[in-house]
Zinc finger protein (Melia azedarach), 697 residues
Amino acid sequence: MKSHEPKMPRMEDILNLPVQDPPCAEFSAAYLKWVKVEGGRQGGDDIALIPFARVEDFVKGESSNAECPASFRIESRRKRSEGSISKPRVDGYLEYTLYWCSYGPEDYRDSESSNGDGSDVKPATGKGSRPGRRHMMRGCVCHFTVKRLYTRPLLALIIYNQRKHVDKTGAPCHGILDRGAVGTRAMYAPRISEDLRQKVMSMLYVGISLDNVIQHHMEVVQGHGGPHSRDDFLTRNDVRNMERVIRNSSHELHTDDECSIKMWVQRHQKHVFFFQDYSVSEPFVLGIQTDWQLQQILHYGNNGLIASHSTFGSKKLKYPLSTLLVFDSSQNAIPVAWIITSSFVGQYIHKWIGPLAERIRTKDPRWRLSAFLVDDPSFDISTIRENFQCRILLCVWHVRRAWIRSLLKKCYNIDVQREMFKHLGWILYSSRSEHNGVGSVEEFMQVFVDQFAFMDYFKNRWLPYIELWVASMCSLPVASPEPLAAIETYHLRLKSKLFSERNANFWPRVDWLIHALTTEFHSLYWLDQYSEETGYFANFRDDSFSTNAWNQALQIPDANVILDEQNLQLAKVISQADGTLAYTIWNPGSEFSLCDCPWSGLGNVCKHVVKLAMVCKNRQVARPLLAAQVYRQALLSLLQNPPDDPLVLEHAILHATRLQQDIKGLEELSNSGLLQPLPPEVNSQTAVNLQLFSRLQ
């Protein structure tokens, strides 16, 4: 009689198995559907296919087994280069990694409990004992193999050789099912988690003492009712070991900077989302994102914003630094990725932005970005839009800050400063009038011809790029002043930490920059978020950067704003600290507003300027959005001069339809406070234009 049981697949059929990609951030074997293989070296073992990029998520998930918390170490690893095999097996590998539970395979339970020295007990494998780990070895045989397939490098074949955490007799050897482990650390994972390690290291980097770390940890454990995991058994010795690691660490892994960088990349591969070494034809590019930064971009970037802070330190550092930022619930900018490149970051953005987007979506396929703010018009907009499928906004924080700070240094007449700053804004917005950018620049240089110092600076530094900026202002919507303030605060903090004179000797080395960013500077932002979420260690935060003008503006009552809608040349904001004091804002509602408060006098975006921008948008008295005007002009031009060619006309109609969809999307961003509100007549006129176009078909 024939059996009706399903036939086990043979090893040559593994590529026909479904690739499983659970939607959660970390997943264990319980999330996968396993099949047993017939024949071959893996005969009888459970196998599954997952994306190779998610192997680490699987290892973390398996380590979080509730019944048998564990930590899987790499017992052995082998690699092959592509092209090294002419006829690879179906399960042939590029990379082979054997993971074994850290409670095995050796078993020292008997030797540790006996009075003898245990010298007659030999390891279960031929690798010898592991110094300092004898107390952890309980004979666990749980292990699995991961193969990065030779013929399918993006896939990983997981072969679970032994899924149960048992010893060679088949009895539980650690965890809550092991009676001998009750009341000991063997009930829990053998080591503290990576999250706790990151937490403690960050505390130490920002100057929190060992005693304070231990006291805080004890309070947290007591708060959730006593020990529940290995992390709850954090000891002073654990913290001392981490202190020793910090004390002995150095940015200089090699005397040669390039070799030192390669060594760092090799040691921190999970923090590198893109690396390209310098060559004759290719620039140096390094993309860094820690696990914590990845968590922040997943949390705050989903349906939110990413803003670029590009080309920092181009005059002092060997290679300039670019940062991608997200904004938290307190409107603070958080660095979620760093890109160091020897060329213009916008020129080679196509190399690293794809791997970054893939890294994010691998963790959460449902993750979506609302808008990407670029601060450099040379960025490849199409590449960003293709990878993130979002709207692109132009952010003028960099050009605004450079111009006003130069004016403050080179022009000593306050009234002239204000007029020149307003005219500089007109240059960027020149497309809204009949004059082109070149005409606006010539007019500016004629009116202020006597300001020699600033004119020399403007001609040398900005004149070659004005047309590029004006063209971008025509084609992209412009971000409102609110995010400018948050980006500027990040800029000031970065500058204060990296450009301290005590670090001057290290500026020419890239390895120092990498070390500074990923240790102390990274820890500052970790502490900010941890303190914000828990209320702990508020006294260790840097008050000068704990809030920015965007957040501060939200605390100013609307009643403190004095705005004459008939005269938008200036407005006033009454001080919250002193009701008799009012600050004057010129050109309110614009990115090129100026205030007479001390903070604005240093060239910064102040809370009064941001508050006025908010009020102007809410009352719909701000000037219309430039991009909306450009769209409207394009539609009117098509309407007034309809093409004779039917194909061209059809293209024009499709173009107009797309513009209407873009304006609807911009309305959504405007409602969220990122853009100035669209005047009602823009949308109504667009609808009329579309109707007229359809009649021309």
In short: The mean pLDDT is 81. The first strand starts at residue 35 and ends at 36. The radius of gyration is 31 Å. The CA atoms of residues 26 and 57 lie 5 Å apart.
